[in-house]
């Protein structure tokens, strides 16, 4: 994996903090991402020290996400588009939402996302400099473990607040909303195409595991649900969701590692807040794109059985935030509309999770780098020797059985 050298970091930091007018500025690299953590780029952690012309030195703990160079991946348009999209999110979308927040005297964006110090574009590379949330005592959840109800409550509540920002912005500024968000290219579509061989291999592995465990009826029902395969279903869902009248700007990448939680001291079971990470595939879509992907990729069998309650938690937060933003929830996005869209679009989250879980649940020694393998049959290769089959099958089996049998609306 290509890593960032010190001279590059120094240049990026200088460009990021140039408006602070420090007389002296230094950056110390304190860590980088490991294999399997940042598939579409390098992640570098740094401590930045700025000495002003008067007063005490200031420290900034930052995360620098940068496109990889020199490994054959930077010419792939899906990678470039992903970085452009995250830069767009912090440069354009967040400031637009903050306009609405300011009008109503609230600050939700600060609660939802890490602080962005800068987005930078060079001739052959794009990058983004964010606050390192670990310096604020936020931490990742163990990606091998499903979220319990307490963690799902806080993430779904925040999705309600996040989606409310889009709905309120459209309600108050329909012209500006259309100009800003309509016509955004779908970065997820391109990434799915890039990894098509891997998704197809994961689908074969799913059927193999079901049949080896004598789940023949489930396998047959699944084939009826996905007659053209997982990739085709994902692409179909991506195409049709953006045309919903009340589509919102979605997160789009809703698996375990894209959330960081903060806990009360000495209490790791009750998160007090969460921030969302990675907006490289954000787009205009149904809220169900986020909800179905998030719930199916993170919930265990126990929590899946409480799907109706999970959606009510989300909607209660959405409704409350819409009211604070001067909107009528019954007019803008009633609960019945959420359920209609869930029935129509939740297959997206199911299809995505049937692939993603096979990556997420790998043990560290089995993790892979999609770019390094050129998008080849990653899943087929990794399952030949991984130590995680039982865990993967348990989660996938619960997912399949829930999706095929649940009808409690």
Automatic annotation (TrEMBL):
Q: Which residues form the CHK kinase-like domain?
A: 128-324
Q: Which SMART domains match?
A: CHK
Q: What domain of life does the UniProt record list for this protein's source?
A: Eukaryota
What InterPro entries does the annotation carry?
CHK_kinase-like (IPR015897), EcKL (IPR004119), Kinase-like_dom_sf (IPR011009)
Stretches that traverse the bilayer: none
User: Gene3D superfamilies annotated for this entry?
Assistant: 3.90.1200.10
Q: Which Pfam families match?
A: EcKL
Q: Which PANTHER family match?
A: PROTEIN KINASE-LIKE DOMAIN-CONTAINING
**The protein's name:** CHK kinase-like domain-containing protein
Query: What is the protein's species of origin?
Result: Dendroctonus ponderosae
């Amino acid at each position: 994996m290509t890593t960032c050298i010190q001279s590059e970091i120094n240049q990026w930091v200088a460009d990021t903090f140039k408006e602070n007018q420090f007389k002296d500025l230094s950056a110390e690299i304190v860590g980088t991402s490991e294999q399997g953590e940042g598939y579409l780029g390098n992640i570098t952690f740094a401590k930045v020290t700025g000495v002003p012309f008067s007063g005490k030195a200031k420290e900034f703990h930052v995360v620098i996400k940068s496109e990889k160079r020199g490994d054959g991946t930077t010419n792939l348009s899906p990678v470039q588009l992903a970085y452009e999209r995250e830069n767009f999110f912090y440069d354009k979308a967040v400031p637009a939402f903050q306009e609405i927040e300011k009008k109503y005297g609230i600050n939700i964006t600060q609660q939802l996302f890490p602080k962005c110090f800068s987005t930078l574009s060079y001739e052959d590379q794009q990058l983004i400099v964010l606050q390192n949330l670990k310096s604020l005592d936020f931490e990742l959840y163990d990606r091998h473990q499903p979220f319990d109800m307490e963690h799902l409550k806080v993430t779904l509540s925040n999705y309600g607040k996040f989606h409310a920002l889009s709905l309120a912005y459209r309600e108050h500024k329909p012209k500006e909303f259309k100009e800003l968000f309509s016509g955004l290219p779908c970065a997820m579509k391109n990434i799915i195409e890039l990894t098509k061989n891997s998704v197809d291999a994961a689908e074969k592995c799913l059927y193999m595991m079901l049949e080896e465990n004598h789940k023949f009826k489930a396998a047959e029902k699944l084939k009826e649900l996905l007659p053209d395969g997982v990739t085709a279903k994902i692409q179909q869902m991506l195409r049709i969701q953006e045309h919903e009248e009340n589509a919102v700007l979605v997160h789009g990448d809703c698996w375990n590692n894209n959330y960081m939680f903060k806990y009360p001291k000495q209490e790791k079971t009750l998160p007090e807040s969460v921030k969302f990470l990675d907006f490289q595939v954000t787009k205009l879509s149904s809220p169900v794109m986020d909800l179905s992907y998030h719930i199916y990729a993170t919930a265990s069998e126990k929590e899946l059985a409480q799907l109706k309650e999970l959606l009510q938690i989300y909607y209660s937060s959405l409704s409350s935030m819409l009211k604070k933003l001067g909107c009528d929830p019954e007019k803008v996005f009633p609960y019945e509309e959420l359920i209609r869209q869930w029935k129509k679009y939740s297959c997206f989250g199911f299809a995505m999770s049937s692939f993603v879980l096979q990556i997420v649940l790998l043990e560290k020694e089995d993790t892979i780098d999609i770019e390094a393998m050129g998008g080849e049959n990653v899943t087929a290769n990794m399952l030949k020797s991984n130590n995680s089959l039982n865990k993967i099958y348990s989660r996938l089996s619960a997912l399949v059985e829930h999706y095929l049998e649940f009808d409690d609306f």
